[in-house]
Write a structure and sequence with these properties.
Layout lengths: L20 H23 L12 H34 L4 H29 L3 H7 L1 H5 L1 H11 L5 H13 L1 H14 L1 E6 L2 E6 H6 L6 H17 L1 H21 L5 H8 L4 H13 L1 H14 L24 H15 L1 H12 L3 E2 L11 E6 L2 E5 L6 H19 L12 H4 L1 H16 L3 H36 L6 H16 L12 H4 L13 H19 L1 H13 L6 H6 L8 H27 L4
Parallel strand pairs: 3-5
Antiparallel strand pairs: 1-2, 4-5
Helix pairs in contact: 1-2, 1-3, 2-3, 3-6, 3-7, 7-8, 8-11, 13-26, 14-26, 15-16, 15-17, 15-19, 16-17, 17-19, 19-23, 20-21, 20-23, 20-26, 23-24, 23-26
Length: 607
């Protein structure tokens, strides 16, 4: 573990504290703002109405209600992120949990108004509106999306009821997963001593250099998830059941069709990417088998060795060293990128310390204006530094979106990973350039860990979720049935790269992504992000000045067009496997180099 004191983020730019008079006053103003928006919608009959006349009055009404809707979304999003900043870092904070529950009620009200706006837009001639209104022209893609979405709305009364029931339905089940998983303490035997540790810290032990520690942590983790398998199975069954039910009532053939529309891609694009990914499974298995041989595990890697460190990375990657490295190499791309990252470090935008009650993993959320906040559970390793650069990339994306309205900032997950993968690749290639062969092995392996997760493991998650949705159409599934679906998906993707005795049947309990009713299939967008980001990075290397001139504009426009249209700006066709194969070729080159270095190491005479 790190020997340095790790930072906590500062949220005081919004309010002094959750219990401050300023927060109480601001929250009351926010409730009043949403209430006023509802009155405005009622006064102007903003609801489903077919074949409306597009006259000057209608255009003026559009401007009034759309501006008000944007303003309300902006205020609600800032307050939501502020409260989330306390909930995510300490789920035992009862004040934060209470405010979060109140915020969900307010968010539900705004969601209902958003549905009314979509239904109203569905009755307009959107293309004529775009032609006649500058505001509509600025929001052209949002309006076109709304027009499409309106065809998948239930009746107004049903949509209102669905939004209200969601608070005690899928949202409540999702909260249960967050609370249970973040507060789960697990006994782990280390060096003959039993220690009780939060699950997030137990999972971090997967990176420990000591194989016995990793194996003990893996066994303790599985035992820990088994203790809470029943409520989590209830949660995932309920959420997937709700999504299936509502998707059917809204006219979607499957939950996947709805997710593809939300992510601004079509099935042809998804199939092209997954086809290219499947073609690389044998290469990833070569990597896993080579790693198994290096670790003395035979020809197949047990799950608890997936994240085992390999090679001799002489850099300590303490937090301060990671900060300096990131700033230096972000600066090699552009001064603007470096200045943004320096501000994030200097102004305490990052919460890096793992601790009890804090949620696992890492994420970046927009807070206010051009500011973001980044959560990580930092570990002093190359992977820790790379993850930090990745999340800073999300923040840089938010910086470029700062001037956009909320309706223009509705970024699909497929494009949300663009800047993060790009920034991650910057630091990864910089670290490789200066490394000796032993350190190269460590860095390439750490990078391949990530690529394997985003191609192979993400494929297993997609297969699992698709199977779960299909099975859930008929009935609820038992814990064993859910476990079996997960094991089958892992066998289909990892194949003989992993030791089948040591799969992870509880990955469905680990990943909070499965517990979102709003974002089903919260998996393939990560693969899309990796491969799209690698493709863009290749273009940067080929024509750096031309690329820089267009890149920030691409990020700023990522909510204003579908993924295929934006990709065309760089001459990319994402609907055929060739682009995805080209991106995966860079990963395959890493695998080839890793296998070569690992064989050299195994063949080297012992000292």
């Amino acid at each position: 573990m790190t020997t340095q004191t790790l930072p906590h983020w500062d949220l005081s730019v919004v309010y002094p504290s959750l219990e401050s008079p300023e927060f109480a006053e601001g929250f009351e103003k926010l409730k009043h703002q949403v209430a006023e928006l509802k009155s405005l919608f009622d006064q102007n009959a903003i609801q489903r109405s077919e074949n409306q006349v597009l006259d000057s009055t209608t255009i003026a009404t559009f401007a009034t209600v759309t501006n008000a809707l944007n303003q309300a979304h902006e205020a609600v999003a800032t307050t939501f992120s502020y409260i989330m900043g306390f909930v995510a870092t300490d789920t035992r904070n009862t004040v934060a949990q209470a405010r979060f529950s109140e915020m969900q009620q307010l968010g539900m009200q705004l969601q209902q108004l958003g549905i009314r706006w979509v239904a109203w837009i569905g009755g307009l001639d959107v293309e004529q509106l775009i032609a006649q209104s500058p505001l509509a022209a600025d929001h052209a893609y949002a309006l076109q999306k709304a027009k499409q979405e309106a065809t998948h709305l239930m009746s107004p009364a049903e949509e209102v009821l669905a939004a209200e029931l969601n608070l005690s339905g899928a949202n409540a089940w999702s909260k249960l997963h967050t609370v249970v998983s973040s507060q789960l303490n697990v006994p782990v035997e280390i060096d003959g001593e039993t220690k009780h540790m939060p699950m997030s810290m137990v999972r971090n032990l997967a990176f420990d250099p000591n194989r016995e520690v990793r194996k003990s942590a893996y066994e303790a983790e599985l035992a820990g998830w088994k203790q809470v398998e029943t409520p989590l199975a209830g949660a995932i069954n309920s959420i997937k059941g709700q999504v299936n039910t509502l998707a059917g009532h809204r006219g979607w053939a499957t939950a996947l069709d709805e997710a593809l529309a939300d992510n601004n891609i079509d099935r042809q694009t998804l199939d092209a990417m997954l086809t290219a990914a499947r073609e690389t499974f044998p290469d990833f298995r070569r990597y896993l088998q080579a790693k198994a041989r290096l670790l003395g595990s035979g020809d197949r890697l047990p799950w608890f060795d997936l994240f085992a460190p390999i090679g001799n990375d002489v850099s300590t990657w303490e937090y301060a060293e990671s900060e300096a490295f990131i700033l230096e190499h972000f600066g090699s791309y552009s001064q603007r990128l470096r200045d943004y990252a320096a501000r994030a470090f200097d102004e305490n935008w990052i919460d890096a310390e793992p601790r009890a009650g804090k949620r696992d993993g890492a994420f970046c959320m927009r807070l206010v204006g051009d500011e973001s906040r980044i959560l990580s559970n930092y570990k002093p390793s190359f992977a820790g530094m790379r993850t930090l650069a990745h999340e800073l990339g999300h923040g840089y994306h938010n910086l470029n979106l700062a001037a956009a309205t909320p309706l223009q900032r509705q970024i699909p997950m497929t494009l949300a990973e663009t800047a993060s993968i790009f920034c991650e690749t910057i630091v990864r290639n910089a670290a490789l350039a200066k490394a000796d062969p032993a350190t190269q092995l460590a860095i390439i392996e750490s990078s391949l860990q990530n690529s394997c997760q985003l191609v192979v493991d993400i494929s297993s998650r997609f297969i699992f979720e698709q199977s779960l949705f299909e099975a859930r159409q008929a009935r609820e599934l038992s814990v064993q049935e859910i476990n079996d679906l997960m094991l089958k998906a892992q066998a289909e993707t990892y194949g003989d790269g992993l030791d089948e005795q040591y799969y992870h049947q509880y990955m469905w309990a680990v990943k909070g992504h499965y517990y979102s009713a709003e974002r089903s299939f919260y998996n393939y967008p990560y693969m899309f992000g990796l491969l799209f980001g690698l493709g863009l990075y290749a273009q940067y290397v080929a024509t750096p000045d031309e690329f820089r001139a267009k890149y920030d504009d691409l990020l700023a426009a990522s909510g204003k067009a579908d993924a295929a249209t934006l990709a065309e700006r760089f001459g990319i066709d994402i609907r055929t496997p060739d682009f995805w194969r080209a991106s995966l070729a860079t990963v395959k080159a890493d695998i080839d180099r890793f296998v070569e270095l690992s064989e050299q190491l195994l063949d080297a005479p012992a000292n």
